[in-house]
Structures are given as structure tokens and as C-alpha cells.
Amino acid sequence: MLRFDWEWAIQKGKQEGYQLGRQDGVHEGVQLGRQEGRQEGRQEGRQEGRQEGRQEGEHSASLKIARQLLADGVGKSAIKRYTGLSDDELASLFNHGH
Q1: 71, 93 in Cβ contact below 8 A?
Q2: What average pLDDT does this structure show over 18-22?
Q3: CB-CB contact of 67 with 56 (8 Å)
Q4: What pLDDT, on the 0 to 100 scale, is given for residue 10?
Q5: E strand or H helix that includes residue 31
Q6: Distance (Å, whole) CA 11 – CA 2
Q7: In whole angstroms, what separates CA 49 from the centre of its chain?
Q8: How far apart are CA 20 and CA 50, in angstroms?
Q9: Which of 9, 17, 43, 59 is most buried per CB count within 10 Å?
Q10: Per-residue pLDDT averaged across 5-11, rounded?
Q11: How far is CA 3 from CA 12, 15, 25, 50, in A?
Q12: pTM score
């Protein structure tokens, strides 16, 4: 008659349980990491989008102000100083404005 080795069975069960638990833990960790990464990516994307939007808005405002100053006869150096526009941007305004 065969004798069942309980100690071996318990030890084997613990090993398998440990391996399965570890695999589950790694899987959960990867999933959590992905979720956190997506959230951080979305947040960074929103921040970058807001920053780009502000910059574009400020640039548009500077162009509008420059056009108004140009129409009022203000000189190129003053417009550049007040708006912060580049020489190329001002040249473009002057070429289209006159």
C-alpha cells in the first residue's frame, strides 16, 4: 500500500501558490503601472496643450497689437519692443500692411 506524503504535498502546494501569487502580483503591478502611465501621459498632454494654446493666443494677440500699432503709424523698433515679435514677423506685417 502506498503511503501519501502530506508534507511533500503541502510543500508542493505552497510552492505552486507562491508562484501563482507572484504571477498575479506581477500582472496586477503591470496593469497598475500602465494605468498610472496613461494618467500621467494624459495629464502631461493636457498641460502641454494648455501651454501651446496660451503661447498661440499670446502670439495672436501680439500680431493683432502690432497691426494696430502699424496702422497708427508706430515705428518698427517700437512695435518690436512692445510686442516681442521677431524681425521676420514684423517684416511680414510691414510687407502686407503697406
Answers
A1: no
A2: 88
A3: no
A4: 84
A5: helix 6-71
A6: 19
A7: 8
A8: 45
A9: 59
A10: 83
A11: 17, 22, 36, 73
A12: 0.57
